[in-house]
Amino acid sequence: MKTQNSWRIRCNHTPEVIDRILMPIRKRGMSIDKMSYERDGEFGICHLHLEIEESDADRIYKNLMRITDILEVEKDV
Amino acid sequence: MKLRGADYIVRILEKLEAGHLFAYPGGAILPIYDALANTSLKCVLVRHEQAAAFAAQGYARTQAHKPGFCLATSGPGATNLVTGIADAYGDSVPMVAITGQVPSHLIGSDAFQETDITGICMPFTKKTWILKDLSKAEEIFREAYELSINGRPGPVLIDVPKDIQEQEFEVADDWEENFIKPFHHRFYNAHPEAIDKAVQLLSQAERPLIIAGHGILLSDAVEDFRRFVHKEHIPTISTIHGIGILPTDDPLYFSWLGMHGMKYANEAVQKADVIVAMGIRFDDRITGRLKDFAPNANIIHVDIDDSEGSKNVPTKVFLHSDIKTMLMEFPTTLTRSSHFRRQVWVDELKELRNHYPLKRRNHETFGTATACDILNKSIKGNVVVATDVGQHQMWAGQYLRKLGPFEFLTSGGLGSMGFGLPAAMGAQAAQPNKTVWCITGDGSFQMNLQEMITLVQERWNVKILLLDNNYLGMVRQWQEQFFDRNYSGVDMLNPDYGMLCESYGIKWAKAENAEDLKVAIREAELHDGPFLIHARVIKEDNVFPMVPPGASLSETLYYPE
Asked: N or C, which end of chain A is more exposed by having fewer CB within 10 Å?
């Protein structure tokens, strides 16, 4: 069953970090509904909103955790 | 003092002790090549950039905590590195790839030989950079090196626009004295409650089993692991990357598991009540059908990458740590009564092994498995074997039983044909005092055979065992088993390998039976130079045991009658 997911991602602010955040979603052929990104000094805060299956959400979360410049992913904020 | 960007970068690579640089020149990397003419680094000219990336891997796979380096020009040079970089990512091999790029003002203009290589490689690198400002060069190269060898190792890529290479840059006179090469540092983040839970599970286990994987090598923890296995008296199996972690004749080692692993190793998983998985990622090649994997076991998973915890297989306890550190921290669980229980279990596995042994080869039928068996008998240690991908890869893993840690190099996660010869080159560069064998098939070999001339130019004494059945054997096997013998696109017309060797200046011998092969191996070992054995093996043969696709480990097919 698809559920609404709202994640807050804290990351290092680098040229490629937004691409890397979107990678696990894009490679599954999925889309985001809403996204915001804001720089905070050397860090960035990204909010993602997407509607996906729970199993996909788990996998995408795991993929995000592997990305070097991602520091923290808070689910369901 | 003023330094040209290219000279500065090369000097940084020297400070990082890059050692060998597997490389191919081109327009966008010319300034760096100009600087390399005066370097102490060993710059190896390969004949295809893909080989550069595989060679960098071979270099890194024979040791711990040291990345391989490869270098290519922009555009097609960079894209030719892609398979090797993806392969390194699939097997967590540390590598630093450096590419030239078109001048900064041309980026995005579809310039000649321009590709967005940092974008292309993003899915299978730990990180990529475009070096836009030489004041960041030291920081970026240091970060790249550190990232490649720390945490879960892997490849990184630095893209350097040509104008940056040509730029003059003011550096501090004492920058070299102040340069600190990054080092490998250990990591331990396991919660005490998790350790307690793991200890409790293991203490109460009737049938504990360890699965040892590549992470043990990457952590340089082989000796610690061997001590742990024997201190705890727990039977152990490995992944294919774990070959050599324990000697094959260790009384507690029961071979490697998975799609073409030993049936008794797969059965051990299915019977175990506690599994300690160390440095493995529960790849589908070893789990079989996931829902039926280890149906009776609580799993304790030790890994440096916490994204692996319960990624594929639900784990009861995840210990987030470098393996070596965990092995030092983990308390003893063995008691007199648990020793007795574990010995009963070990004896049960020995029975299983006797019931489902590796098939003996009588050497009358000259197949790939026989050839690997014969090579195994000739190995006397101090050897590295790099395989290509296919049936020969599986048989090599089954029949080469004297290899130690870091001595079996194989493309596991990506399964890249063409890996073998360049990886063997890289291994020889890293281990000049070892005998390096490349075991390859006629399909895989033709993907990078141009590197034979690199062997000659660099004077690397790699020995090549080419197992030629005029088929893409593994694909043919699947077509036989699952597509009703509808052989499509697998029948291979091959060149005259003898003439090919002679044109490359490589000594060679033909082997059409077991006796020929024994003679050829002796000749190869005695020859001071690269050597190729062209072994004409039987056309159709199937690798067993086998877990068919979609089947569980319990459904491992043993050798059919």
From this structure: N
- B542 within a domain of the structure (yes/no): no
Domain final position from B129, B149, B178: B178
Same domain, B118 and B257: no
Q: Total domain count for chain B?
A: 3
Identify the domain boundary among B178, B211, B240: B178
Residue B137 is assigned to a structural domain of this protein: yes
Both B73 and B119 in one domain: the answer is: yes
3-state DSSP assignment of residue B368: helix
* Number of neighbouring beta carbons within 10 Å of residue B54: 36
Total structural domains in chain A? 1
Shared-domain flag, residues B288 and B244: yes
**CATH number of A64's domain:** 3.30.70.260
**What's the ipTM?**
0.94
Q: Does A62 sit within 8 Å of B307, measured CB to CB?
A: yes
The catalytic residue among B17, B112, B343, B499 is: B112
| Cis preceding linkage at B357, omega within 30 | no
Chains A and B form CB pairs within 8 A to the count of 25
- Has residue B548 been placed in a domain? no
Q: Which residues contact B255 (CB under 8 A, 6 or more apart)?
A: B237, B238, B248, B261, B262, B264, B265, B353, B358
- How far apart CA B508 and CA B524 sit, in angstroms, is 8
In DSSP terms, B300 is beta-bridged to B276, B317
Q: How far is A29 from chain B (nearest CA, A)?
A: 15
Q: Where residue B50 sits, what CATH number does that domain have? A: 3.40.50.970
Task: With H, G, I as helix, E, B as strand and everything else as coil, classify residue B305.
Answer: coil
Cβ neighbours of residue B314 closer than 8 Å, sequence gap 6 or more: B299
Q: What is the pLDDT along chain B (561 residues), one digit of tens a residue?
A: 999 999 999 999 999 999 999 999 999 999 999 999 999 999 999 999 999 999 999 999 999 999 999 999 999 999 999 999 999 999 999 999 999 999 999 999 999 999 999 999 999 999 999 999 999 999 999 999 999 999 999 999 999 999 999 999 999 999 999 999 999 999 899 999 999 999 999 999 999 999 999 999 999 999 999 999 999 999 999 999 999 999 999 999 999 999 999 999 999 999 999 999 999 999 999 999 999 999 999 999 999 999 999 999 999 999 999 999 999 999 999 999 999 999 999 999 999 999 999 999 888 999 999 999 999 999 988 999 999 999 999 999 999 999 999 999 999 999 999 999 999 999 999 999 999 999 999 999 999 999 999 999 999 999 999 999 999 999 999 999 999 999 999 999 999 999 999 999 999 999 999 999 999 999 999 999 999 999 999 999 999 999 999 999 999 999 987
Closest-approach residue (CA) in chain A for B310: A62
Q: How many residues does chain A have?
A: 77
Supply the range of the domain harboring residue B226: 192-355
